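Run log, item B.
One chain of 417 residues. Sequence copied directly from the ordering sheet:
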Amino acid sequence: MFSGVFFFRISLILAFSSAVFGCSFNWTQGKKTAAATAAAAVGPSTYCTIYTQINAAPFATGFVPDADGTVLNPYRICTVGQLNAIAADTSLWDKNFKLEDDIDISAFVGMIGTTATGFTGIFDGNNHTLSNLTINSPATSDVGFFGRISLSAVIKNLRLTGISVTGGDNTGGLVGFILTTTASVTNCSTSGTVTGAAGADYVGGLVGQMAGPVDSSSSSAVVSAPGIRIGGLVGFATTASADINSSFATGSVTNTAAGGSVGGLVGLTSSGSVSNSYATGAVVGLATTTGGLIGGTAGTITVTNSYSTGAVSGTINVGGLIGGASTSTTIDNCYHATGAVLGTGAGVGGFIGTADNVAVTNSYSSSAVSGAGSTGGFVGTAGATNSFTDCYSSGAVTGTGGISRVGGFAGFVSAAT
């Protein structure tokens, strides 16, 4: 066993040539990026009491003119019966809706949007809350209050609390699958539990899989699945438009099967960006890459002004911020602190487990790190063409099982770098 406490303030390019110590570092200690939260809850509008509510379009009588589901005159929703009517009628899934009250939806049946027919309208929660959603569809893909959204669908200003959602591939507390780059989720949140069934892939506390952006949103849901792309907020971000901004996750994330990527905020991102966001929940994975913020990156990715603080435990490629970062990943002004990072295999780092073709600036890790191979305070394994500029680590680093590749900053730097 090897153990030590290291503090490095470092500016270096890992070119297997030189490392310059003692350089300035422009991170503001203790800085935490601000992620927007949903606006304060509001009470019911007079609309729900003045007008007679019915469970079919236009959903109320006496309102002049009748709502027609357009942008300027959306259907206004006050009851769970009305939500059930929407879920049961696919001809309404291209219309626009606005919540007028908080609603207990424990009697909600079905989903709005499915694999066969996605929801394409606008659903404005109007800063109201839907509580006690239960969906138990372990053999179904695209599972969530909105199973699938597409085209230019917008889900905004909506809270889901006390949810219990179980599904197959593409399962999320709010949306199972954001299919298109022009569909989006803004200012939404979930709390409760989200569970992926046996073999389920793409599972997230808010969204299972996303091609379009998520902004100013959050999840405190506890997420668990045996699948291979699992995140506290989003399971899998797939396109250059799959941007996560000003968002956070605080629930624990557990992966119960080998392989894949699991992260406190997002499991795997293959394109797009993560900015002004954070994760604080504990992450436990049997995955190939496990990270406190992002499990793995596999494309042209930028991560800025973001952090994680939860404990991270996994097998190989385990990182406080990112488990495995590769293929033109750029990271700036980020950190991992507080939660210990533990790996039972190689590629374990306080900030990144394994890095390949990654550029990191103005970032740090300060947590204790323990691994059984290639273990470093900042990065466990650094492959080819990485650069780390104005970065440092300050936590205790421990190598188990008599390994020799242990470093205060990097455990192992490839000779090809």
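Observations after the first pass:
- The chain is about 5% helix and 50% strand.
- Residues 1-38 have pLDDT under 50 and may be disordered.
Flagged for discussion on Thursday.
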